[in-house]
TrEMBL record:
Entry-linked SUPFAM superfamilies: DNA methylase specificity domain
Gene3D superfamilies recorded: DNA methylase specificity domains
Source species of the chain: Lachnoanaerobaculum gingivalis
The name this protein goes by in its record: Restriction endonuclease subunit S
Any single GO BP term: DNA restriction-modification system
Length: 243
């Protein structure tokens, strides 16, 4: 609830600044997004200072099958999937060889992750976990080379214009999906650098608090998952505890 409130505050701020344009007195010009200030830049995603990659960027399906092994018990690195990001519980791992083979999609935390197969358009900020991390399948990762782009892009793709644009490029009869090439061709607009930096510095404390709360929740899950089996098996005796 707290995290949701914090994120909604950042979304409302985004709308004020970049939909209602309350922080600019520039002239408005007509674009495919409607009227926007003439100081804003119209670009394509592929022109942004970001890295866009995915699981299959690491090799052919045959080489991935031969070199990547998934584990249900703890191992060298987390294998981050869409379902894990939704639940906040990370239970699939890869060994060190697999992790090194998947070097083109290594995660460090803070990347924007978007589902591009099945549940198309789910958007997350990658958490920072206690082990190395690598990107799972059926999702793409965006890593900004310009730090103040991260939260702007996250809100753009999750809550604003980016959602409808992503839905517009999905195809597939059996299972909805989109590819990286089409994604890179999607349009976007950016505010001037000073306004982008101002927005970044304003919402950054909100997202840092969200991340801190997520880390605490993850720690509690680990404690729960460690203690519960021992309680159930009787390995830990709590019969003498006076409640």
């Amino acid at each position: 609830m707290v995290n949701n409130n914090l994120e909604q505050q950042s979304v409302l701020l985004f709308k004020e600044w970049f939909t209602d344009f309350v922080n600019t007195s520039s002239n408005l010009i007509e674009t495919q997004f409607g009227l926007i200030p003439d100081t804003f830049r119209l670009l394509k995603n592929g022109e942004l200072q970001i890295v866009v990659t995915d699981y299959v960027a690491n090799g052919s399906f045959a080489s991935l099958k031969a070199n990547v092994t998934l584990y249900q018990e703890s191992n060298y690195a987390y294998f981050i999937r869409n379902t894990d990001l939704k639940s906040g519980s990370f239970d699939v791992f890869v060994d060190e060889h697999s992790y090194k083979f998947l070097s083109k999609s290594t995660l460090y935390g803070g990347e924007i992750i978007i589902s591009n197969v099945g549940d198309v358009g789910s958007v997350f900020l990658c958490p920072k976990l206690k082990k190395p991390m690598t990107l799972g399948n059926n999702i793409i990762m965006l890593r900004s080379e310009q730090d103040n782009l991260k939260y702007y892009l996250y809100i753009w793709f999750k809550w604003l214009y980016g959602q409808s644009l992503i839905q517009g490029i999905k195809g597939g009869s059996a299972q909805p999906k989109f590819n990286k090439t089409d994604f890179k061709s999607l349009p976007i607009f950016l505010p001037p650098d000073d306004l982008l930096e101002q927005f970044h510095q304003t919402v950054k404390p909100m997202f840092e608090l969200i991340e801190k709360n997520n880390e605490e929740n993850q720690g509690l899950r680990v404690i729960r998952d460690t203690l519960l089996p021992k309680l159930m098996s009787g390995e830990i005796d709590v019969s003498d505890i006076d409640l």
